[in-house]
Amino acid sequence: MELLRRKIENEGIVLSDGVLKVDSFLNHQIDPELMKEIGLEFAERFKNEGITKIVTIESSGIPPAVMAALELGVKVIFARKKKSLTLTDNLLVSTVYSFTKQEENTISVSHQFLDETDNVLIIDDFLANGEAAKGLIDIVKQSGASVIGIGIVIEKSFQKGAAELKELGYRVESLARIASLVDGKVNFVEELEE
Ligand code: G4P
Ligand code: NA
Ligand code: NA
């Protein structure tokens, strides 16, 4: 996705140890025009798959998930990372290990909004080691619903998540794929190599 690629090139900041900071449009300040285009792109890629729900995880997965859902005409459910005062009944729960923070987090979704009739598109902002995606897959499976695919805004292809999810048989659609982050520069996976 050319627009996203340019945005990453112009505004992304390469931090140490393979981390890309994109706080100006994705992780802190949100660019709604870009999100709209991202939503259109996900919708285009999954429009013929009979998607009935989008599942994401708070917080940064929510904007792209909502825009894609608007285009596909479905609702979005976001997994919560913290206990909620009101979300207490009928919870589907999984654990997600964060390598970045070196801690295990419990994520939860209410069974009320997801069942065996659903065809789910999972969306997230980043794909690194794939822990968040695997936690979401676990929750969708517990509900009896089917995972149709995984839509990612920025994939760090040099980490193991994308390869592992594809190995497991999932369709992974990443709008930007980063091959490496070296000397402050973002190197994208060349489309021809795919
Ligand atoms: P994984 O799920 O793929 O295994 O990822 P990991 O544990 O490494 O990621 C933990 C958090 O860090 C996630 O956000 C993830 O989106 C984010 N992250 C991972 N790599 C990068 C990166 O290179 N750049 C940025 N900007 N973020 C990265 P989170 O803690 O769940 O936060 P949020 O969704 O509330 O923003
Ligand atoms: Na994030
Ligand atoms: Na995220």
From TrEMBL:
Pathway(s) this gene product operates in, as recorded in its UniProt entry: Purine metabolism; XMP biosynthesis via salvage pathway; XMP from xanthine: step 1/1
Residues that, per the record, bind 5-phospho-alpha-D-ribose 1-diphosphate: 128-132
Reactions this protein catalyses: XMP + diphosphate = xanthine + 5-phospho-alpha-D-ribose 1-diphosphate
EC number: 2.4.2.22
Single GO molecular function: xanthine phosphoribosyltransferase activity
Binding site for xanthine: 20, 27, 156
Superkingdom of this protein's organism: Bacteria
InterPro entries in the cross-refs: PRTase-like, PRTase_dom, Pur/Pyrimidine_PRTase, Xanthine_PRibTrfase
Database matches in Pfam families: Pribosyltran
Enzyme class of the recorded protein, top EC level: transferase
Subcellular location: Cytoplasm
Keywords noted in UniProt: Cytoplasm, Glycosyltransferase, Purine salvage, Transferase
Subunit field text: Homodimer.
Entry's family note: Belongs to the purine/pyrimidine phosphoribosyltransferase family. Xpt subfamily.
The protein's name: Xanthine phosphoribosyltransferase
Organism: Metabacillus endolithicus
